[in-house]
Design a protein that fits this description.
By secondary structure, the chain is α/β, with parallel strands linked by helices. The chain has helices spanning 36-44, 51-69, 73-84, 91-104, 109-145, 174-182, 199-209, 221-226, 252-262, 293-296, 347-355, and strands spanning 9-12, 15-19, 30-33, 153-157, 186-191, 213-216, 232-235, 239-241, 246-249, 266-269, 275-276, 297-301, 307-311, 324-327, 334-337, 340-342. The two termini are 27 Å apart.
């Protein structure tokens, strides 16, 4: 089983420690969360990010709330509602809160705190195992794409869907780590993913792991696909509709379109908890708008090596900032889940078969 180099989330007594992802890739920093409001802020501000990690963090937020504020039904419902409103698109958030609610609501007040901590830990452990399974199935996919033992498999990705975004090896990067462990050579093209530049987190992960990679501008992806420099595109997902339409970080749809034109297979890697069978198609997926300021500013290091924010445009510039886009199922070759690589149209049937 993959072991995270630094835990993204863990309990520490009556508080929770997270890896503060707003400090990356320049420095590693942990942040201690003591209260429900601390957890809500960490999710909103993207100190934690990635659909599975958001879900696990929210689960621990419920446990913190009941430990600090009391475990009666009113406080439980308040915690569920507050955390449920932090990020609208990532369905794992609501999946994890629903799992917590199903366990905790029937219990008497005196049993809820211990049960909340236990269930939150179980959600995190389940995600780690799910990531490993995604890695195994993704490795089989990569082995099937190998055509020349003399060169590595060239994988393009978008945003960050590695161990930083989960409680385990990641989703889109889980096959990459599995390939490394199996001795299969890979080379990763990392899309920078503006405006949050989360591709930099992928590059940081891969550098730490010693995996060959190249950072590219988002808009270079089409050209590299057209020139035959990519064997496969694999991204993560924040919500998958019942018909297989998939929401992921904005810019994913453009890569899927370019991959289809270039004849390069485009895959999604995500756990079944990312599927929303109550959402019929991509038009029904809520898209988070994070506000234009993220588009008009950039965060980095100054000449003295100190973190700083720089404004790219005049203050009165109007900007929009949809955080996600939706890739139609017809552009997706398959979805790599813990149950295997599944065609978008077979998701519900496969899920039902696995439950029987």
């Amino acid at each position: 089983m993959f072991v995270q180099p630094v835990p993204t989330l863990c309990r520490d007594g009556d508080s929770v420690l997270i890896l503060d992802q707003t400090a990356l890739p320049w420095r590693r920093a942990q942040c201690r969360l003591h209260t429900l409001d601390d957890v809500a802020h960490a999710i909103r501000s993207m100190q934690v990010r990635g659909a599975p990690l958001i879900g696990g963090t929210a689960a621990y937020g419920v446990a913190l709330a009941l430990s600090r504020d009391g475990a009666d039904a009113i406080r439980l419902e308040h915690a569920l509602a507050l955390l449920g409103a932090t990020r609208p698109t990532a369905v794992n958030l609501h999946w994890a809160l629903g799992r917590m609610a199903a366990v905790l609501r029937p219990l008497p007040d005196e049993e809820r705190v211990a049960a909340a901590w236990h269930e939150a830990a179980a959600i995190c452990a389940d995600d780690a195992a799910t990531c490993d399974a995604i890695g195994r199935h993704g490795l089989e996919l990569l082995l099937g794409l190998r055509v020349d033992d003399a060169r590595p498999i060239r994988i393009m990705t978008h945003c960050n869907a590695g161990w930083l975004a989960t409680l385990g090896a990641g989703t889109a990067l889980a096959p990459v780590y599995a390939a490394q462990a199996a001795g299969l050579a890979v080379d990763i093209l990392v899309s920078e993913t503006r405006p949050r530049n989360q591709g930099l987190l992928t590059a940081w992960e891969l550098r730490e792991a010693g995996i060959p990679h190249t950072l590219i501008a988002d808009n270079a992806a089409g050209l590299m696909l057209a020139r035959g420099e990519v064997d496969v595109v694999i991204t993560g997902a924040d919500r998958i509709a019942a018909n297989g339409d998939t929401a992921n970080k904005v810019g994913t749809y453009l890569k899927a379109l370019a991959a289809r034109e270039a004849g390069v297979p485009f895959y999604i890697a995500a756990p079944y908890s990312t599927l929303d069978f109550a959402c019929p198609d991509g038009d029904s997926i809520p898209i988070e708008d994070r506000g234009g300021d993220e588009v008009c500013t950039v965060f980095g290091l100054d000449t003295a090596g100190m973190p700083t924010q720089v404004r790219l445009s005049p203050p009165d510039t109007r900007a929009v900032n949809p955080a996600f886009d939706v890739t139609p199922a017809r552009l997706i070759a398959g979805i790599v889940t813990e149950l295997g690589v599944i065609a978008p149209g077979d998701l519900l049937r496969t899920y039902r078969r696995a439950r029987t």
